[in-house]
């Protein structure tokens, strides 16, 4: 391992953990009485902003040499059909939409006579990730960034502190119907009491190790309700975990809003942690249980898809059905996964189609299903409804493969929907796709 890079990661982890622990002990938005500024992110109505709102970010650091704001604030004109041409938040115009091809970055300004660093910019409706890149002169180099951290006054949710802390924070923009065209308020937290609850619960996986599930219970969840709830199971992609569908895609907020608006029936959402399942034992494997690799598993260098699916049926599904009031009927069960989780979902669907009423293959499909005769070996593919969704400007996975699998399924008479949305290989696209999955599966 590169020693310099290893030391950098250790320094970053220590400082980030320190910031998180500090933030847990202090109010989420610490006020600076002298300047009238609040640490964290503040969104206010601004008649001079092109969006009608301005977001102000304030970071306190007495030792910083300089601070760079880095966030998902690149905007695009859909009619230009070109994600290489982007616009800053200051150039935002009605009809522009965000997509994460790279982060927008700008140096923050230090407020004279204080330890505060700040930046303000227009913000449209929606959910936006951001972070701070901080350089310290005492490190002997005043040119390079030393750490990348979340906003310590606005920490994103963590499942537990056993995992690496998140390097991002979230800020929400609101909709101004006079100045904005696209209303993304569906991802915003509700301000009333009609809010469900997300818990991160530990389970023992197929290898005997502790993993976590992210479980969303809808507002008014009744464990004794006569009619059990339907369930949507979700998988992240490469490098993700069980928190991302809730902290980045805002799945909980989307469900809260759809349920409150009467558009979907209350349902449970379960996000699975499919990390650390390579074909050979993960370095995080600490139990005495033998690694569950089996000859003939479908796998690549990162994920043993067959092992992950065995874990789902043998460990995840039984835990959920034993501990929550959920239907055990296959038609009341959905599964959706993004990116590498889309590969996983397509394999799960091909091998176990009768176990689900709905399948969402999002932004990725297993190569083994692309050949014209690849689907011939599988039966009952018409059992669930299938949605194949993706960002129409995705430049990470093969859209040709996605289109081919869609056409092959359609030719077999499967009830399959081709669902492109504006976006790239990003959470802006996956938020839209989750909303579509929810409306399609539990819509009224």
TrEMBL record:
Stored Gene3D superfamilies: alpha/beta hydrolase (3.40.50.1820)
Entry annotated with the keyword Signal: yes
Domain of life, source organism: Bacteria
Keywords: Signal
Span of the signal peptide: 1-30
Protein name: Enterochelin esterase-like enzyme
Source organism of this protein record: Ammoniphilus resinae
